[in-house]
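Quick one:
INPUT:
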């Protein structure tokens, strides 16, 4: 058996809590079992002040690796002594048959982007980081560099039809990623679980907000809510054995009707005026072509998030 290592560049740096740094978690990529290890905090002396300027330490197998004669830059701390950090790179490790390195590497290359896309989607949904800031390059290519030891020398494995990656770094984020969240996102991505449709629409709302397309962000958020409410109502009517459930859904159409039916069925929702908070802003941008600002958009998305996580706490579709 041989080890293949992968140095992965995240689409955007992960904002990590101290409890996730330096930790190793299990992953699975189309049946190829492996692990992901985050870099560690630097050594801090108790007497040091403002010591977050020290870079993160690479995972042990790669701590001495260099690019262009310099040690690989894995990220940096952004708080001291709390130890929160911006993580730009992580180390993947796969154990493969000695005579099957190239074929396994190509399989990793062909499937890795799908894994990383799901992983980063769940990071957004779980932590909310990377949902509000402007995107410098939304078309940036994801990238993983695979290497293995050959006669004590690191040898690079080149993917088929490889294109040079465009490296764009943005460090502004929202909530820190803790170890349990890191493990959860990795598990879902490794199982190829898709987010529920309403959470996929919420991700679209995040993406539109980050492009400063506030009108689209509000429309997508309201659509996410309507889909989420419809799913929850269908489940509730089925649970109660209501034989005319479809007729009820037809009667209480669209978002306003879904909210009204949820109230009639006593589905627990936060006690707020959603006509004012969500419906009116949605109707204004659709029917009156108004141009909402960022503050209004943030408020609408926040209210949608609160309802969705209340009625649909499981963000992924069951396998």
């Amino acid at each position: 058996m041989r080890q293949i290592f992968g140095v992965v560049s995240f689409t955007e740096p992960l904002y990590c809590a101290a409890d996730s740094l330096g930790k190793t978690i299990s992953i699975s990529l189309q049946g190829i079992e492996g692990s992901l290890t985050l870099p560690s905090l630097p050594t801090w002396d108790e007497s040091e002040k403002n010591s977050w300027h020290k870079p993160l330490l690479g995972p042990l197998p790669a701590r001495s690796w260099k690019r262009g004669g310099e040690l690989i830059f894995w990220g940096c701390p952004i708080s001291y002594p709390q130890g929160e950090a911006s993580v730009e790179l992580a180390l993947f490790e796969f154990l493969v048959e000695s005579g099957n390195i190239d074929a396994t590497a190509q399989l990793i290359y062909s499937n890795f982007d799908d894994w990383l896309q799901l992983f980063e989607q769940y990071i957004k949904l779980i932590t909310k980081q990377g949902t509000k800031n402007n995107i410098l390059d939304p078309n940036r290519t994801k990238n993983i560099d695979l290497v293995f030891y050959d006669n004590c020398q690191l040898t690079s494995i080149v993917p088929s039809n490889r294109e040079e990656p465009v490296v764009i770094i943005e460090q502004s984020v929202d909530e820190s990623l803790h170890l349990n969240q890191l493990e959860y996102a990795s598990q879902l991505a490794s199982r190829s679980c898709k987010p529920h449709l309403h959470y996929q629409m919420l991700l679209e709302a995040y993406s539109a907000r980050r492009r400063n397309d506030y009108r689209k962000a509000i429309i997508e958020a309201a659509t996410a809510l309507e889909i989420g409410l419809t799913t929850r109502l269908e489940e509730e009517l089925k649970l109660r054995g209501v034989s005319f459930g479809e007729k009820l859904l037809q009667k209480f159409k669209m978002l306003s009707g879904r909210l009204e039916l949820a109230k009639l069925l006593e589905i627990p929702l936060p006690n707020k005026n959603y006509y004012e908070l969500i419906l009116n802003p949605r109707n204004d941008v659709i029917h009156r072509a108004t141009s909402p600002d960022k503050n209004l958009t943030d408020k609408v998305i926040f209210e949608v998030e609160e309802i969705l996580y209340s009625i649909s706490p499981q963000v992924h579709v069951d396998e």
